[in-house]
Structures are given as structure tokens and as C-alpha cells.
Amino acid sequence: MLSRLPFGTQKKIIIISFVALPLLLLLTFSYYPALELVRLSFTNWDGMSPDKDWVGFKNYHEVFSNSEIFGVFKHNVAYFVVGIVQNIAAIYFAVVLNGKLKGKYFFRLLLFLPYILNGVAVAYAFGYVFDTTNGSLNFVLGKAGLGSETSWLGTEKFVNYTLASIGFWRFMGFNMVIYLAALQSIPGDLYEAASIDGANKWQQFRFITLPNIYKIVELNLFLTVTGALEVFDLPFVLTNGGPAGASETFVMKILETAFQFNNYGLASAMSVVLLIGVVIVISIQRFFLSRKGD
């Protein structure tokens, strides 16, 4: 029956058929829950009662006025800082492993392997590494005469940086692979011409490599920022927000508000604030990077 229709009509039907199902799934599992989340953020729903009393902007006022809620965002700064260092390291290893290095495929695999490991398993493994009394890190430092009683996960000043360093180990290889793919798309003739003109390695990186991978840098920074704002698994498994809430993240606070205190209205408002925060940070990042790229 479809074959009897004009070619243009057949083409439209096929396109609509292929687009309809993904669009339906997107509306069902993304846009509708997002709109429902916004609606619930203006209520005091406890998660069980059929009554959802309208409270207006009361939940949002609570988010911004309560330092115990909004103040935990400062704990995410460590993940952002370490994420920037992670991207710099990923670019460095990508450049090195894109050259003529013996065994480079083995080193690529070695650096990428941590990314495919389960996040909870990685957290538990590093729990033994950072253990104060029996941890391997303190053992090595003790043998080197640098002290062996450091509480890496129990000190408020650097517990978040300790947790973020695990993310550095796990995700650096993933970013490296993305940068490596971008580097391999750059024509080798550009480097040959630059070498003939007397450009050194730094000048080649600055004027050839960096401009050609700029969009990939922007993509990885996007992933870094969103990951830093939405981190959950590492502090939840290793410290459960301790010591004294020093490593509690905003996502952990949302789950605590919803499932421990049964305040789904406030938790929904916190989720909307997180979403808006991500959009604002990403917009600022794109504004400055786009201007620099132009």
C-alpha cells in the first residue's frame, strides 16, 4: 500500500515514523517528568499523600535562605578545580600518545581502563587506598618518611579534593580518548609545513593543535562542569557526606530531603535550582569560550 503512494509522501511517512517513537519516548521520560518536577516544586507534597497543597515560592525561598542547603554548593568547587587539571592532563597525554611513541596503544588502553570500571567498585577500592591506619597511600608515604597518619577522608579541609582525585583517575582516560580522536583528525601536512617554517613543538601546539581541538575542549569542559555540579556516587559511598557534612554535595542533599525527610516539594525545588544552575554555568562558559574561539 505504501508503495502506491508518491515518492514524496512515502519519504514523509518514513521520516515521521522514525522520528515519532524517539520523540514520544523523549516527551514521556524527559520533558513530562521535568514539567512535573517544576509543578511539584511549588507544593508541599510528602511523596505519599494524594494532597499537594500549593505553597508558591516558599520552597525556593527555603533553598536560597538556608545555608545548610544552598551552602553545600561550595563542596562542588573541588571537583571543578580538579576537573580543569584533569582536562589539562588529558590533552598532554593525548598529544604524547598521538606521536611516534613505542607501545602507545598499550598506554592508551592503560589510561582508558579506569573509565570502564564500575563507579561504586572504584569508590570501595580507593576506600582502602585512603584508609588512615591501613591504607596503601599512608603506608607508601610512611616508608618515604612523609608521614603515615593523614586522614584523607576525615579532614574537612581536603576531603573533597581527595574524593575529586578519584574522579581524576577514573575520567582522565575518557577525556584523553576524546582529545586523541580530535588530534587524529588534524592533517599531518599542517605540522610538516610548520616544521619547515621553523615552528617548535610549543608553537605547533599553540597555533595548530589548540585551535583545531577547541570545540572538543569546549565539549569536555561542558562534561566537567556538569559532572562537578552533579557528583554523587563518590562522597555517598566513601564518606556519606562526612566529616560533619564537609563532603556533602547538592545532589546528596536533594536525596536526603526527599527520601529521609519526605519533603518532595522542597527536593523538587532544589532539583530545579540545580538545573537552572547548570544552565547558567554552561551558558557563561559557552559565552566566554565562543568569544575566545572567534
Automatic annotation (TrEMBL):
Residues 76-285 form the ABC transmembrane type-1 domain. It is found in: Cell membrane. The keyword Amino-acid biosynthesis does not apply. The chain crosses the membrane at residues 12-32, 77-97, 109-130, 158-182, 264-288. GO terms for cellular component: plasma membrane. It is a multi-pass membrane protein. It holds the Pfam family BPD_transp_1. GO terms for biological process: transmembrane transport. Signal peptide: none annotated. Keywords: Cell membrane, Membrane, Sugar transport, Transmembrane, Transmembrane helix, Transport. Coiled coil: none annotated. Belongs to the binding-protein-dependent transport system permease family. This is Multiple sugar transport system permease protein. It comes from Paenibacillus cellulosilyticus.
